[in-house]
């Protein structure tokens, strides 16, 4: 079987028109007909029935079209595989704090690799922003991503990416989960889960409470443990909204409706200042800022 004849037959069959196939392939309509006739002669089967404007594939034609689709899909895959072979893979070294690495980076990497399949990511996660800065200075990572904080270094460029929010979270079964407005005076009657000193959420929680005395029932450092403790009714605490999307969607956790306990927090990218930025680094930073990947969160 001649693959060129098969290709032309498939175009005619898909478009249900000899004229449209001729225009698409950019050859004359009589030439299209000749190719199809040669294919029919090779197979000894009628593939297309035409009577005036009536166009219909025969049973043999429908079977051949199905296999033709598979064949040319495999041809495209083979061509792409050959093109990829020997293509130099590029590596991008990213660093992020734990929350961002868990809840944001996978969506960014997935979106980036859709259009840049030859880029490999090497990701390292840290607890503190200053650890990321140290890795940038030592050239261990190209880009660091963290929640916004003061960076007192002229050799580090910091840019805002998107905004997250720290919110007060309680069990989805709590009476306040329905969304009614709650006051600070009411909130401080709840048992609280605190974070250890130095944890990035603890200062936000303490500042929001503004010195109001609360009953602290637990101190936990891992966000997943905090989420489970809240779900079990052991207390309430602040969490990044990005970290509880699934739990909110399934009714396991809820956000307290109190404006005081909704604290905006930007994500930022950090990298070394340089006169001539490498092309891959420039591309990665542009993709972070265009925010298209946020739709995949």
Brief descriptors of the model:
single chain; 297 residues; alpha/beta; Arc Repressor Mutant, subunit A; D-Maltodextrin-Binding Protein, domain 2; 3 domains; seven-stranded mixed β-sheet; two-stranded antiparallel sheet; 12 helices; elongated
Q: Any overview of this molecule?
A:
With 297 residues, the chain is α/β, with parallel strands linked by helices. It has three domains: 3-84, Winged helix-like DNA-binding domain superfamily/Winged helix DNA-binding domain (Arc Repressor Mutant, subunit A, Orthogonal Bundle); 90-162 and 266-296, D-Maltodextrin-Binding Protein, domain 2; 164-263, Periplasmic binding protein-like II (D-Maltodextrin-Binding Protein, domain 2, 3-Layer(aba) Sandwich). 42% of the residues lie in helices and 24% in strands. The protein contains twelve helices and eleven strands. The chain has helices at 3-15, 18-25, 29-43, 59-84, 98-103, 105-115, 129-137, 184-187, 202-209, 223-231, 245-249, 279-290; strands spanning 48-51, 54-57, 90-97, 119-126, 143-147, 156-171, 191-194, 215-219, 237-240, 253-255, 262-272. Strands 3, 4, 5, 6, 9, 10 and 11 form a seven-stranded mixed sheet that branches. Strands 1-2 form a two-stranded antiparallel ribbon. The longest helix is centred in the N-terminal third of the chain and has 26 residues, at 59-84. The radius of gyration is 30 Å and the shape is elongated. The mean pLDDT is 89.
